[in-house]
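hey m, so remember when u said the tokens were messed up on ur end? i reran from scratch. heres the input so u can diff it against urs
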Amino acid sequence: MQASQRPQSSGGVHKLYHQPTAKVEQYYSPYNVVNNNSNDTSSSGTQHSYQTQNEQFFTLDSLPDAGYVIYDSPPALSVSSNWSPFSPQCTQSYISDQHHSSDNTNGSPLSGCSVVNDGNELKHVLREMENNLLGPDSDIDEDSSCSFNDEVSKPSKWNRLLEIAPSLDMKELLVACAEAVSDGDFSVAEALMNVLEQKVSVSGEPMQRLSAYMLEGLRARLFSSGSIIYKKLKCNEPTSSELISYMQVLYHICPYYKFAYTSANVVIDEAMRNENRIHIIDFQIAQGSQWMFLMHNLARRPGGPPFVHITGVDDSQSAHARGGGLHLVGERLSKFAESCGVPFEFHAAGISGCEVQLENIHIRHGEALAVNFPYVLHHMPDESVTTVNHRDRLLRLVKSLSPKIVTLVEQESNTNTSAFLPRFRETMDYYTAMFESIDAARPRDDKQRISAEEHCVARDVVNIIACEGADRVERHELFGKWSMRLMMAGFTQCPLSPSVGEAITGVLKDFSPNYRLAESKGALYLGWKNRALATSSAWR
């Protein structure tokens, strides 16, 4: 939607969010971590061309309803395609390729340029690999050359692959290893893993670091120990003070937290402009820092601040990071509200989102309700995991409360119901972009960066690759799928005012120019180069 067609802001709202205040920053602690293909020789903070002939990126798909907006984050962006905010120059062969995955039939913005969910992509990669192995004059027919699964030719293919494995790049090795794991071919998979072991490094290039964790996930899956390893990773967490320091590292070197905080705060502030009593339900309250920024702004409201009632829903990682229960968050927010002169009350709902029922959230007559979902709904199991379908149940519950505004921020990735091999490829593409973005901000031998990746990102990667069923808790969906869920629950999407994009643009000025911001279908997309990583939208 064009900026001119959206409601105009009252002016100046965004300035209060992208200009840090010492009063708020001293209280900071982030919430749960969020988590392009690029060449293995990724940059370390240097600028790359957005469009290259040899790189393919996960981009946005469907034509926006009324165009799209690219915000002026530095440097100025130029987009040549009129159907994708982050689209590189795509060939017609990619554009005409229709995706038939069940995850991409609901308006989800997965570009025709993407190779992530094309059912033939893995076969294409393997066919190219086979040509290298057997030569173009191989007597194996085309059908058998599409996959290493062919029972007749597979032994010779694997043998030849193992011969040249040391010369393959990281991505080729990972794809081949994933195929062997999928086939249950222990000997080939272990041989490829041994080669990978010699190439990965937690202090190397982005692809080397990501490969280290993806290798761990593949090994766990091969030996059917994914859930065991994942639980051990959770049990072997660092101390509270260490974990919170790692989360703070990510907060300061990447804009993902600030993208969620800032976009939701501006939306809620505008929706509640004329309300005197506000109730905010935060389904991932974490340390509560987001609401300090909002209260700091509400305190400046002409005529005095409104009464603010916050209900915080907890999660085990945040409880561990802060070293105690939600009462610590309540005390912290109450102290801050008092310092700002904001009438305040905090209610603790020390349960996971899956367990939330009406009686847990203390709805009161006369309070305008805002509900915040920051990177949390993808943890709710849906119909593919349990017949209870907590993901849609929770949305229906929230809709029954008649909220004035609902804010949703989610990772733009497709890992919920995808089969293992497409999910593996998607994970590799998505987290390559994330590791590149982290790489741009800290030296590769930085110990804090290494610890932050290990304890705040690697666990998610292992979970996506190694686990299935209820044990797989990282179940991301694309914005198109989230839109369908919300509409089926009875919600209507709210257009975002220009102030939201302006506020995020201000945030991005402190980060690498490779971060990109675009608006499509009423949502804001945050991307690294041409890969969309997160979306923010508003509903009622």
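this time it looks ok to me. The chain is about 40% helix and 10% strand. if urs says something different then somethings off w ur setup not the seq
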